[in-house]
């Protein structure tokens, strides 16, 4: 039970971008987790914590990657798992979740509706509710990504991370603190249609988006975790937003460079370096968190490239 469910992932040095930008550019390849995204770090630790307390049934509401991570955790620990997904979740993702033995329930047009149903179901089933991003144990688990990097490289000037609900973001800041990477700054990347953190930073308070307007489905949280905003304001985090086309183009460039397909959500972070944003003008070293994602297929990616005239 004590063995971690996540893998230690590679840290790649990008010769292409480092030469082009005259900076040291690193990719932390969390796309190589067993579930294809960073989610298993924090969500896996949360599931292990619940199992130690006698949990017999996990329930989560998720549009995809967090649900897949809980399904994987349940499969590894032989614990019953139910994943509630909104109607927008693609069939291939539902199949990946169910292939791990989890029950998939489609309920609600958006995650918020799925989440209310999942919480109600937990009470009926006497199950443990697993939040996809808003829990201290999840942040602690996600902090392990910095623990892996600290012995390998010197603290970079910037870390770039895509932000949906804020679970990875909170974990990275926790990892910076416990590894004494005190001078490292964070750029929080979102697509324009999912920019709940950027709007919250501007307002100085939590903001709930009226709707999500982006192909970056894994960033589709209408409101970030309160802890994410607290940390963003405390550590003077730089928000960055990009349109869907630029995020897609970054994914395409990353695929050509590394032979690895990631979601447009991850492309939001990648676009900072591939577009050479002015936010990194003063940086000498940068680490991009390649969060990955399994809510994409090559066929879907190819169609999106054509739709947005990226080819």
Brief overview, please?
By secondary structure, the protein is of the alpha/beta class. It is 44% helix and 16% strand.
Structure, described:
The protein is of the alpha/beta class and 311 residues long. It has two domains: 200 residues, Rossmann fold, CATH 3.40.50; 91 residues, Rossmann fold. Helices cover 44% and strands 16% of the residues. The chain has 13 helices and ten strands. The protein has a six-stranded mixed beta sheet with strand order 1-2-10-7-8-9, sandwiched between helices. The chain has a four-stranded parallel beta sheet with strand order 5-4-3-6, sandwiched between helices. 52% of the residues are buried. The mean pLDDT is 95.
Set out the fold topology.
Blueprint: E1 11-13, H1 15-21, E2 24-29, H2 39-52, E3 57-61, H3 65-77, E4 80-85, H4 91-99, E5 103-106, H5 111-125, E6 128-129, H6 136-142, H7 144-149, E7 158-162, H8 167-178, E8 185-191, H9 196-203, H10 226-234, E9 238-242, H11 244-258, H12 264-274, E10 285-290, H13 298-307
Parallel strand pairs: 2-10, 3-4, 3-6, 4-5, 7-8, 7-10, 8-9
Antiparallel strand pairs: 1-2
Helix pairs in contact: 2-3, 2-6, 3-4, 6-8, 11-12
What CATH architecture label of the largest domain applies? 3-Layer(aba) Sandwich
Low-pLDDT residue intervals, each spanning 5 or more residues: none
Number of helices, where a helix is a run of at least 4 consecutive DSSP H or I residues: 13
Strand content: 15-25%
Mean pLDDT across all amino acids: 95
CATH class of the largest domain: Alpha Beta
Strand numbers in spatial order across the main sheet: 1-2-10-7-8-9
Order of helices and strands: EHEHEHEHEHEHHEHEHHEHHEH
- Biggest β-sheet, characterized? 6 strands, mixed
Number of spatially distinct domains: 2
């Amino acid at each position: 039970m004590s063995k971690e469910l996540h893998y230690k992932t590679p840290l790649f040095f990008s010769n292409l971008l480092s030469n082009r930008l005259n900076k040291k550019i690193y990719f932390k390849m969390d796309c190589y987790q067993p579930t294809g995204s960073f989610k298993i770090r924090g969500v896996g630790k949360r599931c292990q914590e619940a199992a130690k307390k006698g949990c017999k049934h996990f329930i989560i509401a998720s549009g995809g990657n967090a649900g897949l991570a809980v399904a994987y955790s349940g499969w590894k620990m032989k614990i019953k798992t139910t994943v509630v997904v909104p109607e927008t979740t693609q069939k291939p993702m539902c199949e990946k979740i169910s292939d791990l033995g989890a029950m998939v329930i489609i309920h609600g047009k958006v995650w918020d509706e799925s989440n209310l149903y999942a919480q109600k179901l937990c009470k009926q089933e006497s199950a443990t509710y697993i939040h996809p991003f808003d829990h201290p144990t999840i942040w602690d688990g996600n902090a392990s990504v910095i623990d892996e990097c600290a012995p390998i490289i010197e603290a970079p000037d910037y870390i770039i991370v895509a932000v949906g609900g804020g679970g990875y973001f909170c974990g990275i800041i926790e990892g910076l603190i416990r590894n004494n990477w005190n001078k490292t700054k964070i750029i929080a990347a979102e697509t324009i249609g999912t920019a709940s953190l950027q709007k919250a930073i501007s307002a100085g308070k939590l903001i709930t988006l009226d709707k999500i307007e982006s192909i970056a489905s894994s960033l589709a949280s209408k409101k970030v975790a309160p802890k994410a905003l607290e940390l963003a304001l405390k550590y003077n985090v730089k928000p960055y937003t990009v349109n869907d086309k630029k995020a897609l183009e970054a994914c395409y460039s990353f695929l050509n460079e590394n032979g690895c397909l990631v979601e447009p959500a991850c492309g939001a972070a990648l676009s900072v370096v591939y577009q050479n944003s002015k936010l990194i003008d003063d940086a000498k070293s940068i680490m991009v968190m390649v969060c990955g994602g399994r809510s994409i297929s090559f066929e879907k990616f190819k169609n999106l490239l054509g739709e947005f005239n990226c080819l």
